[in-house]
Amino acid sequence: MKNNYNLRSIAAQTIGQVLDQGQSLSTLLPALNNKISDKDRALLQELCFGTLRVLPQLEWCIQQLMAKPMVGKQRTLHYLLMVGMYQLLYTRIPAHAALAETVNGAVALKRPQLKGLVNGVLRQFQRQQEALMQRAANHDSRYLHPSWLLKRVQQAYPAQWQQIVDANNQKPPMWLRVNRRHHSRDDYLHLLAQAGIEAVAHAEYPDAVRLLTPCAVNNLPGFADGWATVQDASAQGCVDLLDPQDGEQILDLCAAPGGKTTHILEAAPQAHVMAVDIDEQRLSRVKENLQRLHCHAEVKQGDGRTPQQWCGDKQFDRILLDAPCSATGVIRRHPDIKWLRRDSDIAELAGLQAEILDAIWPHLKAGGVMVYATCSILPQENSQQLQAFLQRHSDARLAGTERQNLPHPEDGDGFFYAKLIKM
């Protein structure tokens, strides 16, 4: 049953669900896992992620090769052409195999009469590929970002925007967090080397290790036993800044999928941690992570804007608020973000962040610490949000300086953190 499908048509339909229905790949792809064979999962991910990563370039090429775009019920064929072009440009799949499978995708999509069209456009693309790519290199589409986002990044980072855009367009590095309850980072680097896996330590974050070549988690020493977790280096910085201590009452708000919850418990195994998230489904990931790492936390479903509903009048020694945001710092991990976000979302998200900050602040004890973090690189969600909060709350002060990480090929994702102390 499982092998009776056409992977290119599944990729085209999935891309359509992202672009036309606003669904995210992180929801769509896991739902397809039991419909395709294990060996095809990685290829499906590559086709979907890759096509969305370079979408404007593929759109531009189709415009050059077709008099009018395919719309309406034929729109999925437009995405099928993109999947075909992506394979020819960016994968090692032999051209004849990529073409044959993509053309057969038209049949799987119940459009057998359009096989000839798909074949014709892709063969034409093959013949003109070099010339088209040279022309595309001088076109605005070369930045591979929607214009509104490009404009915001250019305004916020006039000197660095090009470097940010380039980092966003690359495949992400694979970072691990070494579980200090099992091994020191140096010991784990030694275990990786013994397993033939090359890795380097992060210069600043004490548990972070980057693999020079990403690999399957099953190949990592002791992964099933909780010796390491896949987590970006910048995400690990939140817990270093929070500095949790044994015996403290700690709230991890907007906790799913649980990477930071478990990191808190690795750093302070005797802390009393409450992990809260609004998304019931994603909370199951928090529970899975806690189980794998043999950690215990109180896991609750709740809205950050109404804390009294899930914690009453309780106050915490430390709060980690990894706030809902535009996720513009993690585009290389989730290229669909570029096409799911709208310019108008930024002000809405900033409003939501302010509401959560104001609602949760009374639940921090006097002398307590709150770390505000986002995986965004936009000032409206970060430094401007923080300044407005400090103006509204005279009992809050910034400890040290706020920090904005930018995505870098050999470093972590784009991330903002600030440590606040309640006076």
Q: What share of the residues lie within helices?
A: 40-55%
Let me know the average pLDDT. Answer: 97
Strand order within the widest sheet? 7-6-5-8-9-11-10
Radius of gyration (CA) equals 23 Å
Written description of the protein model:
With 423 residues, the protein is of the alpha/beta class. The N and C termini lie far apart (63 Å). Strands 7-6-5-8-9-11-10 form a seven-stranded mixed sheet, sandwiched between helices. Helix content is 46%, strand content 16%. Keywords: Cytoplasm, Methyltransferase, RNA-binding, rRNA processing, S-adenosyl-L-methionine, Transferase. The active site is at 375 (nucleophile).
In short:
It is found in: Cytoplasm. With 423 residues, the chain is α/β, with parallel strands linked by helices.
Characteristics:
globular, S-adenosyl-L-methionine, 423 residues, transferase, 16% strand, alpha/beta, 4-stranded antiparallel sheet, cytoplasm, methyltransferase
